[in-house]
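Board notes, transcribed. Complex of a protein with zinc ion.
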Amino acid sequence: MSDGFPFSAVVGMEELRLGLVLNAVSPAIGGVLVRGEKGTAKSTMVRALAAILPDVAVVAGCRFSCDPADPDPSCPDGPHEAEAPSVTRAARLVELPVGASEDRLVGALDIERALTEGVKAYEPGLLAAAHRGVLYVDEVNLLHDHLVDLLLDAAALGTCYVERDGVSVRHAARFLLVGTMNPEEGELRPQLLDRFGLTVEAAAPRNAALRGEVVRRRLAYDDGPGRFAETWRAAEAGLAARIVAARALLPGVVLSDATLRQVASVCAAFDVDGLRADLVTARAAIAHAAWEGRGEVTAVDVRAAARLALPHRRRRQPFDAPQLDEEELDRALAGAGEDSGDDPGPDDDGPGGGEPEASHETTHGQGAPAPRTEAAPDPGPDGRPPGPAAEAPAQPRPGTAVARPPAAPGPVFRVRRLEIPGTGTGAAGRRSRARTDSGHVTGSRRPPDRAARIHVPATFAAAAPHQVARGRAPGGGLLLRPDDLRAARHEGRESNLVLFVVDASGSMAARARMGAVKGAVLSLLLDAYQRRDKVGMVTFRGGGAELALPPTFSVEAAAARLSALPTGGRTPLAAGLLRAGDLLRAERIRDPRRRPLLVLVTDGRATGGADPVASAHRAAAPLAAAGVHSVVVDCESGPVRLGLAAGLAQSLGGAVLRLEHLAAAPLADSVRVLREVA
Ligand SMILES: [Zn+2]
């Protein structure tokens, strides 16, 4: 047994304990996402999980943990014989660091050996190590987008697939995915959120006695981890045995039609997307019954399952935090109970919906008239963008001062390309110059890593002069050595992160400029969409700055937020820049190769606090020092111009562009642009 902190010794955190245990009983539930502030022992508890999981039997010597009873037919270490010797080992918990490389996650195919020795050499990655165990991602919200995609593909297929230069490998990768995150550091992409079966909010206990107990156990553990583990050995063994017993019971647990209807009613009442929620809730309820030693699922099990399975699946404003109201849940369960046994038959649902099947369909289909739909302006027959948003609702946010109604965006136009100087290495796109995987080949070089694409003509050319010395026989094949390998050098364009920092203060609104400003930002957004950029938006006005839109590929979300943007109040420019700096720091961890372009839209007239203009310049300096490329769109107008935006651009080490000079072409062209986007 390991000397780690024992699972059963973690104080409180009952919801997290339950979420993890249910997945241990039934991995098909699909993992757990744990949200909570720092210092809640959530990571301690997750890391302690492996110790109470049942041991696994694996084929001896197989690096891919094949089950001797059912070996993976595509196992790179296989094929295994039916009588292959096996060993039993503890279940693994594998941690995926947020900064891991692609090779580390999916494994590395050695193209050098494939070309020079003709063997398919594959070094397994973390997905292989996690097969039949737990894959844990701490700070999962900061995980590189590219890794997220690979991880999701593997989790969905239960398979890891690697392909390079025509050589491919696949192996089974089924694991219990557990992620922890601190929501203050940014929310998770909605696509990833939905992939986790359950979510759990972790909080430090408020109760003084419990807090005391947390400290007491921690002190005892630090004093002697081995001795501490010894005192918890029996408790741990008890939990492990209970998991084994529940797994054995699981296949026989009965989910009656009435109870299944209760699951469906609760999911419908909470207005969740699709049917995945129903499936996960049913699976979790069955696991809960097995965990409690029951042969049949009851309302208690459904309630426990719904609390964990539904919060993150409710339809809500993009990027709002998942939550679930307990009283609402009880009402939904009670409501389902009343008419259980009967056809739930939606009443005001047109004629002819008599059959039970049909009514079941409506419960999840076009029924549930979605009272909480997004407050986005109606796109109209031509689709986006939202035209003059006369009816765009204001969406007042809690804590912000009352503002005048949002100004309607002015006309949209085609903007000139704003570009980041230098050569990047980001994902393919259409903005800044970059070395890319595609694009035209501009030369060759020694391969920087094993993932590099091999440039075959250059490799042959490098090998050619040495053929005689290497003893190539007449008519024999070319003799290649690893030193000969050359990788292609491509140049194309990359996409960037375009972060809009928008001044929504009174000084902008008073000059009736806000409409034109919104039109300009909308134009820049459409441009970003065409160039495959990621976009984000920070706004500042009144008391401070606000993250109006965390970085996303959804330009629709950005446009909706922009149309509804309230204006007025003072101009806390420094706060806006500081907020942007924080965001870019976090984003650099998440997506290090995506270069940011900061577009500051302001008249530069900072107000509020002591010496607001000087603080804005002070806030600009670290952005310039971090190498962030900025463009200040100067919105100043009127007869008296202070030219403050130009000064700010200087402090940012960037360029300044007058609002009027943003357009690349006459307005007639914008119609064509809009059509292309729609
Ligand atoms: Zn194998």
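Residues 59, 62, 64, 66, 71-72, 75, 77-78, 80 surround zinc ion (CB under 6 Å). The radius of gyration is 29 Å.
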